[in-house]
């Protein structure tokens, strides 16, 4: 039994081939413009307000929607739904379990995974979005459920708009694969 259990950890396939230089350049352009747009608005228009637009989980989303755009996890439904649902779950976990942050963090991430599976919105950065709602500090906590709207939904939507434009410029790229 031990051999078969550990044997599964060897993997079954080889590493995928390296992508071409054009793919790397377009992924870089998308990542730069998408995160740049969110960061520009965050630091030039929201500075000094109670709102923010830039959270770390959007960086992970950038990898998917600009670098792995054919992945089911990178599609608009997953990007928006995964982030928004996870944000709501994370805020709820924080509000219910504030005295037990470790428990709120674990419950937020685990519940986000389950809900994203149930709703066909699995987006790995959503787990980080839920976790940030719990451990993000006073600036995040003061937003309450507004966190799901701004920064999460607004930031993801802005990056989606950039992805729709940039990912469809070269003939060899197409985004999205599906909407719903």
What attributes does this structure have?
180 residues; mainly alpha; globular
Percentage of residues in DSSP E strands = under 5%
Largest sheet: none
Whole-number average pLDDT?
A: 96
- The number of domains is 1
SSE succession: HHHHHHHH
Structural class: mainly alpha
What global shape is seen? globular
Helical fraction: 55-70%
Number of helices: 8
The end-to-end span amounts to 41 Å
What's the short version?
The chain is mainly α and 180 residues long. The chain has eight helices and no strands.
Describe the structure.
This protein is mostly helical and 180 residues long. It has one domain (20-166). It is 66% helix and 0% strand. The protein has 8 helices and no strands. The chain has helices at residues 2-7, 21-45, 57-67, 76-97, 101-118, 125-135, 138-141, 146-166. Helix 3 runs antiparallel to helix 6 and helix 4 packs antiparallel against helix 5 (101-118). The longest helix has 25 residues, at 21-45. The radius of gyration is 18 Å and the shape is globular.
Indicate the topology.
Layout: H1 2-7, H2 21-45, H3 57-67, H4 76-97, H5 101-118, H6 125-135, H7 138-141, H8 146-166
